[in-house]
Design brief:
By secondary structure, this protein is an alpha/beta fold. Helix content is 53%, strand content 12%. It is built from 15 helices and 7 strands. It has helices at residues 3-8, 12-23, 27-36, 56-68, 92-101, 122-138, 153-161, 175-181, 201-215, 219-225, 241-244, 260-277, 279-307, 310-321, 327-335, and strands at residues 44-50, 79-85, 111-117, 143-149, 164-169, 190-193, 249-251. The chain has a 7-stranded parallel β-sheet, with helices on both faces. Strand 2, helix 5 (92-101) and strand 3 form a beta-alpha-beta unit. The structure holds guanosine-5'-triphosphate and magnesium ion.
Length: 338
């Protein structure tokens, strides 16, 4: 049986093996991915991001547990967790910590947890993360939770992967200001104020809310109109995704799991909203297009590099350094033979 076929047959060992192949970007891994691709496009991808230590892993852990043991009348869902650590390899300790915290989920065949340390470029990380989610998707994991630390380009890239992006804040970390600076709020579909058991949670929530009102000027009306009503009703039936979904704010205590059921409900509402509005398909298509272009760039660049003489390349580079050619002119010269 091929690796891909084993994965479709729900073989966990094959799944681990393929994830390693993908991390190492091997030929065998790429081949298996190609074979699995037709089976993708079903999973709900949920990104969980935020500053270090805000409680993302604890929250992901509880969310996973919730999906496995949901409220009465709801079906359990298979869950995969990808913990991405784009920072230096020295933070390996944090990942180890995550493993320990998530131990109570292990042993459940409906849960698969994978930590991925940074390797090579950010682009490589985004590629590997995307590939891993495709494998989980094909392997019939219905919910894929992707945890990323920080507020950099990697988070934005990974948010682009997810259908729903949750930004986690915690009181007293001064994150609020940082969050705007990094533009992380712009990627949030749902905001979580975790560690709501700590003093200052109210302040954090208030700061986020006023930021949302700046970012979504139309939102203040919605906030007033919808006190107490279900978030579903606050979404008018328009087509423009940007106009409709105002990121809700949910408080949680992820050490205890408080608020996690409400968060899960908000995630479902966001995903229903995406499907209703066509946003789901839009996001899927945007993601596939970005991915296509990334591969295209890589392929064309290496093909071009192989086709051009090193002498011409070095010569042109020198001319650029000496400002005899502008970067654009250099490109013209280097691509003239294409
Ligand atoms: N008081 C309190 N502590 C919490 C809560 N959630 C998480 N913590 C604690 O905060 C610390 C960090 O939690 P993690 O879940 O590892 O946070 P993280 O955001 O995944 O951390 P990194 O992955 O290292 O960025 C741990 O000691 C948790 O026990 C909470 O709701 N209340
Ligand atoms: Mg973590």
């Amino acid at each position: 049986m091929t690796l891909a076929a084993s994965i479709l047959a729900n073989d966990r060992l094959a799944l681990s093996r393929l994830l390693t192949q993908i991390e190492n970007n091997t030929q065998e891994g790429r081949k298996a991915l190609d074979m699995l691709f037709p089976y993708t496009g079903r999973a709900a991808l949920i990104g969980v991001t935020g500053a270090p230590g805000t409680g993302k892993s604890s929250l992901v852990n509880h969310l996973a547990r919730y999906y496995r043991h949901p409220a009465e009348g709801e079906q359990a869902r298979r869950v995969a967790i990808v913990a991405v650590d784009p920072s230096s390899p020295f933070t390996g300790g944090a990942i180890l910590g995550d493993r320990i915290r998530m131990r109570d989920l292990s042993g459940d065949p409906g849960v698969f947890i994978r930590s991925m340390a940074s390797r090579g470029s950010l682009g490589g990380l985004a590629r590997a993360t995307s590939a891993m989610t495709q494998v989980f998707d094909a392997a019939n994991y219905e919910v894929i939770l992707i945890e990323t630390v920080g507020a950099g380009q990697a988070e934005v890239d990974i948010a682009r992967l997810a259908h729903t992006t949750i930004v986690v804040e915690a009181p007293g970390m001064g994150d609020e200001i940082q969050a705007i600076k990094a533009g992380i709020l712009e990627i949030a579909d749902i905001l979580v104020v975790n560690k709501a058991d700590r003093p200052g949670a109210e302040n954090t929530e208030r700061a986020l809310r006023s930021m949302l009102e700046i970012g979504h000027p139309r939102s203040s009306r919605h906030f007033q109109d919808n006190q107490g009503s279900s978030p579903n009703q606050m979404l008018p039936a328009s087509h423009d995704e940007q106009e409709m979904w105002i990121p809700p704010i949910q408080r949680t205590v992820s050490t205890e799991g408080t608020g996690v059921d409400k968060l899960a409900a908000l995630i479902d509402q966001h995903q229903e909203y995406l499907r209703r509005s066509g946003g789901w398909q839009q996001r899927e298509q945007a993601r596939l297009k970005v991915e296509l272009h990334a591969y295209l760039e890589e392929a064309l660049l290496s093909r071009w590099r192989a086709s051009i003489s090193e002498v011409l390349y070095q010569d042109t580079l020198q001319a650029l350094f000496e400002r005899k050619l502008s970067p654009q002119e250099a490109v013209e010269r280097l691509t003239a033979s294409i």
